[in-house]
Amino acid sequence: MKQNKNQKNTAVNQITEGVIWKQLLIFFFPILFGTLFQQIYNTADTVVVGRFVGKEALAAVGGSSSMIVNLIVGFFVGLCSGASVVISQFYGAKDHKNLKKALHTSMIFCLAASIIVGTAGFILAEPILHLMKTPAEVIPDSVLYLHIYFAGTFFNLVYNMVSSILRAVGDSKRPLYVLIITCLLNILLDVVFVVIFHMGVLGVALATVSCQAVSAILVTWFLMRAEDIYRLEFHEIRFDLRSLGAVLRIGLPAGLESVMYNIANLTIQIFVNELGTDTVAAWGTMGKIDAVFWMVCNAFAISITTFVGQNYGAGKYHRMRKSVRVCMVMAYISAFIVSGALILFANPIYHLFTTDQVVVDIGVHMIRFLIPSYAIYVVIGIISGALRGAGRVLVPMILTCGGVCLLRIIWLFAFVRSHPGIDSIMLSYPVSWIITAVLFVIYYFRRFPGMQKKK
User: Fold this and answer.
1) Per-residue confidence (pLDDT) for residue 3, from 0 to 100
2) Spatial distance between the Cα atoms of 363 and 350, rounded to a whole number of angstroms
3) CA 435, CA 427: separation in Å to the nearest integer?
4) What is the DSSP letter of 444?
5) CA atoms within 13 A on the CB side of 24
6) Taking each helix axis from N to C terminus, what angle separates 317-344 and 375-389, rounded to the nearest 10 degrees?
7) How far apart are CA 217 and CA 223, in angstroms?
8) Structural domain count of the chain
9) In terms of Cα–Cα distance, which of 251, 259, 284, 257 is closest to 354?
10) What is the DSSP letter of 400?
11) Is residue 8 part of a domain?
């Protein structure tokens, strides 16, 4: 009976059969709202410490420590994208046997990687903070936050792996439900630990890890209860070398790309740190505010990766190309709306995070200076996601590492050193994006699968 039900569930795949724009939106909105709640989840920590502890705590949670978390955890999230692409392709091709091998290999790989990532993050936290020239008054709280965060990194990595698997098979709703629950729980625990018990940065860190544990348990339970070919069964969790190779072939370039991207951001943070605590606090808060834009862009990128991956597995090249065009239009419409809102309401938004007027003034200038250039990145995000869905991962890595990361670092040392200031630092973004976007467009029209048949 269960077999018949599974066959029924996989008989009609709307991602490979349905109306593209409708299915993109159906898949996109749960990811968007999920990312929104993820951002609220992360931003709640910053808001609570900024308003109830002080700007030093705000800089500790949102400054250098945030960059370090993004560097180490971002690498693993990139590896998760390898599992997502492989599983989406097998799911689109209805290859039950290889899908199960890839799924269970991904889970055991996740368990092993969590030990390495957690240990590395715990040990390297303080040395990296000093290398980044983090202000002395910020380091103690930053070290405390990072030690607790990386002690519980197992839960973070499990959630990221399992949620990426669920999205790969077209289930973007249940990861959303989990984020809603844990987001509300995180806000509650932040208030209890920080406002009521006055635990400061320690309370914020404990609230974050506790909620990550809840999210990991819930998504794993969903995967174990799935009534389809992607069901997780603990007795089948083992390494399959062929599946691991396929996951790493796609995921490792994405992970390295994330590392290079975050190294560039770490380099920027070093230059920002030299401008003082006020600028560090404003820059860290900017990272929480502009994440509203990035969550829209990334939600479209995740959507197109899954769409292209499943249609690639089904051999539907025309549908792949059409989905990229539709996704690009929707992404730009959304990007202009979000960018306009952030610029228009920059001042009141910053006041949500801090009452320090100097920090607010610096931050508002950052938003109005930098946000208009963000639209350039939409091209990079959508085309990069589409190429990954088709298994073309090396070129996105090379273009992003060379175009975005290296150019940005070169700009910092060649131009910002002789023209110090936050404006010079921020100019590194549009300069690197324009060059990279042009290269992505050229490659897409020359090499995207099935594009040659269009002649």
Assistant:
1) 44
2) 7
3) 13
4) H
5) 25
6) 150
7) 10
8) 1
9) 284
10) I
11) no
Q: How far is CA 344 from the centre of its chain?
A: 25
What does the alpha-carbon distance between residue 183 and residue 35 come to, in Å, rounded to a whole number? 11
The answer to whether 229 and 6 have CB atoms below 8 angstroms apart is: yes
Query: Which amino acid would we find at residue 43?
Result: T
- Let me know if residue 96 belongs to a domain: yes
Angle, CA 129 vertex, CA 128 and CA 130 arms, to 5°: 90
**10 falls within a domain:** no
**Measured distance CA(130)–CA(147) in Å, rounded:** 15
CB 117, CB 73: distance < 8 Å: yes
Q: What angle do CA 315, 319, 324 make, to 5 degrees?
A: 120
* Per-residue burial over 175-207, b = 16 or more CB atoms within 10 Å of its CB, e = otherwise: bbbbbbebbebbbebbbebbeeeebbbbbbbbb
H or E element that contains 413? none
Q: Residue 212: which domain range?
A: 19-449
Question: Rounded to an integer, what distance in angstroms lies between the CA atom of residue 5 and that of residue 425?
Answer: 56
DSSP 8-state code for residue 374? G
Residues 6 or more apart whose CB falls under 8 angstroms from that of 273 comprise 63, 64, 132, 133, 134, 135, 280
Per-residue confidence (pLDDT) for residue 34, from 0 to 100: 74
Question: 139-151 and 64-92 are packed helices; what angle lies between their axes, rounded to 10 degrees?
Answer: 30
Q: Return the structure tokens found at 22.
A: 């409708």
Does residue 414 lie within any of the structural domains? yes
Q: Return the amino acid letter for 219.
A: V
192: left (phi over 0), alpha (psi -120 to 50) or beta: alpha
148-150-154 Cα angle (round to 5): 115
Q: Give the three-class secondary structure for 240.
A: coil
Q: Are 190 and 181 in contact (CB under 8 A)?
A: no
Pick out the chain residues at pLDDT < 70. Answer: 1-14, 41-42, 55, 62-63, 450-455
Q: Which of these, 130, 422, 88, 102, lies nearest to 281 by C-alpha position?
A: 422
Which residues neighbour 197 within 8 Å (Cβ) at sequence distance 6 or greater? Answer: 203
- What span, in angstroms and rounded, lies between the C-alpha atoms of 193 and 352? 20
Are 172 and 166 contacting, i.e. CB atoms less than 8 angstroms apart? yes
Give me the residue label for tokens 């890890």: 209
Contacts of 313 (CB under 8 A, 6+ apart): 88, 89, 90, 91, 92, 93, 95
Give residue 438's pLDDT.
93
Which two structure tokens, joined as six digits, stand for 223?
A: 């995967």
CB atoms within 10 A of CB 445: 11
Count, residues in the chain: 455
